[in-house]
Amino acid sequence: MLKLPNSAWPSPFNTKSSPVFQGGGIYLYANMRGCDGERVYYDGCSMIAVNGNIVAQGTQFSLQEVEVVTSTVDLEEVRSHRGSTPTFGASATAVSDSYPRIKVDFALSREDDISVPSAEPIEVHYHTPEEEISLGPACWLWDYLRRSGQAGFFLPLSGGEY
Fold first, then answer.
1. What are phi and psi of 55, to 5 degrees?
2. Which residues contact 39 (CB under 8 A, 6 or more apart)?
3. What is the pTM of this model?
4. Sign of torsion, CA 79 80 81 83?
């Protein structure tokens, strides 16, 4: 529970102290959604971070089989961030080998989206423990039912004896 704000979550998402924030970079975190055939349910919540800032986040608990998280990122932002960092800046000036930039007559994106601005940081959505407790088992049961191909299942609920 509460994997997002905890230290168990991948360190690039703990902003100021993270390697991605300090050193810059683009971090893509992809997570499976659904059960693995055993007792584990993977809740999804893929993310994209640029220089330690979350720019895209998938849903954490969902009944969708597939979710694609996309974002427009600018590699020059990473280069600028690294150049402004004393560690990277000093290392860059100490390097004697220089690699030339080669201009090409093609783009990795469509011609009409070259001027699209890169994504802005977003507010990360955190589920409360109560939400996780209600969503996790429900999604696990639905995924198990979907994968087994059955029409339904019997779920005995008992409060026990007093």
1. -110, -15
2. none
3. 0.70
4. positive
Q: Cβ(19)–Cβ(12) under 8 Å?
A: yes
pLDDT tens per residue across span 120-132: 888 888 888 899 8
User: Helix, strand or coil for residue 48?
Assistant: strand
Q: Are 59 and 31 in contact (CB under 8 A)?
A: no
The reply to whether 83 falls in a domain is no
Structure token pair of residue 20: 């991605």
CA nearest neighbour of 42 among 18, 25, 58: 58
- Sheet containing 26-29: order of strands: 26-29, 47-50, 53-57
Q: Decide if 55 is inside a domain.
A: yes
Mean pLDDT, residues 1-5 taken together? 56
> Looking at 37-51, 53-67, 92-106, which range is the least confident one?
92-106
Locus of tokens 């300090």: 22
Tell the burial category of 123 from Cβ atoms under 10 Å away from its Cβ (0-12, 13-18, 19+): exposed
Residue 142 within a domain: yes
Answer whether residue 97 is part of any domain. Answer: no
d(CA 44, CA 64): 10
What is the domain extent for residue 62? 1-75+115-151
Number of domains in the chain: 1
